[in-house]
Specification:
This protein is an alpha+beta fold. The protein contains 4 helices and 12 strands.
Amino acid sequence: MVNLTAGIKVIVKMIKHTGILLPFLFSVLLFSCNSNYTPRPKGYFAIDFPRHEYRLFNQPDYPYSFEYPVYSTVTEDSSLFDENPDNPYWINIDIPSFNARIYLSYKTIGGRSSYRIKTEHGYKDSSSLNTFENLREDAYKITYKHSVKASSIEDSAFITPHGIGGVFFNVGGNAATGKQFFATDTAKHFLRGALYFNATPNEDSLGIVYDFLQEDMLHMINTLEWK
C-alpha cells in the first residue's frame, strides 16, 4: 500500500492548482487501498471422533453375530420401511454422539414377508415368498428410491473373510441415507443395513461423519457370521 498521507497532500495541492474534481481523489484513494482478494476455504465444525473400538453382538436366539462400535447401543426395531417384521431379528445400532442410526433387517430365505400395500381404498395386507432373487431385488429397489435426491449411486460387491457375500451402496448427494448394504449366503440368511441421520441431509456437512461411520459399517460386515 502506498504512503497515504504523502499521497493525499500531493493530490490536495493538485486540486488547489488545477481544479481536479473531488471524485478523482476518492477514486485514487479507493484504488490505493485495494488488495488482491483470496477466497477462504469453507469451514466446518470441528468434530472429535472417538477411537474405532468394538464389542461383540452375539445374542443366543439370533441367527447372526457381529462386532459393533462401543460408542453405540443395540435396540430392537419393528417399524423399518413400514413393514411388519417377519421375525424378531430386526435391530437398530444407535450412535447418539452423531445422532445416527444403522437399521438392520434380517429375513430368512425361503420364508414369507408380510407387507402393507397402499391402494385407492386404503392399505391392505399382502405377502410374498422370500426367494434370494426377490430379496436382492427389494434391496436394490429400496436403495434406488433415493435416486430423486441422490447425485450418484455406486454399488460394490464384496466377500467377507468369513465367506459372506453382498453389495455395499454409496449414495451421493443429499439423499436420506448415504450408506446401505446387504449380506447373504443366498440359501438361508439375508441381512440388510442402512445408515440414517436424525437431521436434514447435507452431503457437505455430513461427509466426514459418513466416512467415519462407513468404517464401522465395514467392520460390522467383515465380522458378520451366520449361526
